Amino acid sequence: MTYDKNSKKIVDIIQSFARKHSLWILGYGTGCGAIEIPPTMTSRYDGERFGLRGAATPRQADVLLITGYLATKTLKRVIRSYEQMQSPKYVIGFGSCTINGGMYWDSYNTINALDQYLPVDVFINGCMPRPESVISGFIELQKLIAEGRADGAEKYQKNLEWYRENQKKVIHNWKMPDYNW
Amino acid sequence: MNRKECTENTCTEQIQKIFHTAEVEVQREKRVKVKLRADLILPFLAYAKDYMNFKHLAHFSCVDWIEDNEFELVFMLWSYEANLMIMVKTRIDRSNPEFETLSHLWPQAETYEREMHEMFGVNFEGNNRLGEFILEDWEGIPPFRRDFNTIKYSQENFYQRPGREDAQNVRETVSKHSGKEVPDFAKEYSIRRIEE
Amino acid sequence: MREKETTLYLGPQHPGITGNIMVKLKVAGDTVVKAETHVGYLHRAFEKLMEQRTWIQCFPIVCRICVPEPDPNEENLARAIEEIEVREVPERAKYIRVMVLELARLATYGLWMGGQSGSMGLYTMPQWTVGDRDYIIDLFEELTGGRIYHMYIWAGGVRRDLPEGFTDRVLKVLDYLESRLPDYDNLLFNNAMFRKRAEGVGIIPKDKALEWGVVGPPLRGCGIKHDVRIDEPYEIYDKLDFEIPTAEGCDVWSRALVRRQEYEQSISIIRQVIDKMPGGDYYNKIPNPLTWKVPPGEAYVKTESARGEFGYYAVSDGSDKPRRIHVRGPAYVHGVSLLEKILVGANVADVSFIMNSLGTCPPEIER
Question: Rounded to 10 degrees, what is the CA torsion of B180, B185, B187, B193?
């Protein structure tokens, strides 16, 4: 598909402007870090002025916020939720447990590096990150969307084989469909 | 007996009178320790619950003594009237760990038994909800036993991000990577802590 | 006319549940017929990790067992080690510990108020209480350096002394919180809709409560007056003057009343502590914590957290690493065996309401 260079820019600018100012977060508290989400969303560090709000189901959400460590039992459900979300979709890794295993690096039940299993756009470090760090992470995501570089979903589509191989190594009983919506 | 008069010493006497083979001692204020044979545990718990008014099962735990080849089961009973706790201990064989269930006395004991079955491998007869509780699709020995090496399991199965080595001097590593010097106050703090 | 029974998974991804837990319901029409709790989504094997770390390295990891209220965990581990090792704690440290514990209790009640009204649809209440709770978290940040996980209480006392003027700031925050209580009452506790919704829902039978292992505010909501701070006083609770409120009714409404009254009692306890705080040492020094060996022995200690009785069983065999530390949180009984019994006969819309009132906190069920 070829666009005229100028019109591609204008359409893309308007689209990314609309997307970055209305990010809906899936209501899934996967780990410790979920305790800093209520302060971010309520009256003190108001997150709603950036357009963030909660979404009840994966079909209505844009952002999957992995707050902290992931046990292998949760990883299976997170993958299913991620694949049910519709493009454009983004993943934010929250906390140092998603970066290198954090405090539970030697546990037999938690994974150590999140971007081997899901495509991550932004990592926020800290244990836990302060609400101000959370907001700065979202602003970073907004910048990536404006520049057109937040392409985690397409990376997942193209390299599905590689992601599946890593996931199946950790999840032994793979009773999930092999396609990816 | 009058429940309000149940102190540590009267409890000890009453238990010793009925269960001759028990080793009873007063550990400290409000704590009585009882060691029993494994087959006498259920009659003792039923007696303590019904007749001595120890109605609250506060805790039910298991310790792995791999050197003696035994598991030790520990029960904590609390009496609200006398404000007293009995710690009951018993030992079972590690190579074939079997015990009877407590769920007819306390319904909450079923949860403790399910977890102990999954983490240590102890089989509780009479509890028909033993099975997967916390772990999913776990292959291998029960993970809380002392001969399961969790560091090795984690390093083999999960991808470790390079650059994370432990027992490193963090300040020196960071200063090497960034090219800046370690500041003076930080040098003094590190050295003082290690020498203390 | 018979209704068909459906299986509903109130699953790990749900906007209305308190954490990462699954409740599998069998529903006939709108009434729950059978409930099963599935846990294990947050399992990190703390007790196994603690066997690999030295005693002083266990303190940063132990506060992450209970996410909304981490301080009773540190206090329990510190007291267990002090009991095995017979280590004295200076008076000033005990007063500071009680102040930190009661502030954590206030913060947790603020979060509970938000959760309970949020599961009912009243979203103004979380905006108020979680925003006000942030002032307490600011105090924690000034005192300990961390907002949520403090790592401040350790064996022998506390890590550092109070900063200058800290007690004045605490009193200012307490005055502010007390002035907000009439607003909370107007919106939630005197609200006829909340009362109608909460009365008669989630009933625990009074004669079976002790046998089923109910502790904390659910037990006091049944009219049974037991509290670890009075049954087995720890730190300096025997020198303080406070009441234990109870309520008859055994349902969600009476538990809410009990928590509301305990909020006021906690504020008065902190004021007494600040009044009576002595000077002196804040830490009984451990000689060289990096090679610290605890003599062989075992101990069981309990604390009263905002949700109930928190117990720790610690075993030491004389080396520099613990042999076994077993943690029992109040949600272990409330969330699994008690919930499965109470939910029978409830409406589907009330499931999350009842879970919030019991204080189901999944991280401490499966650690």
Answer: -150
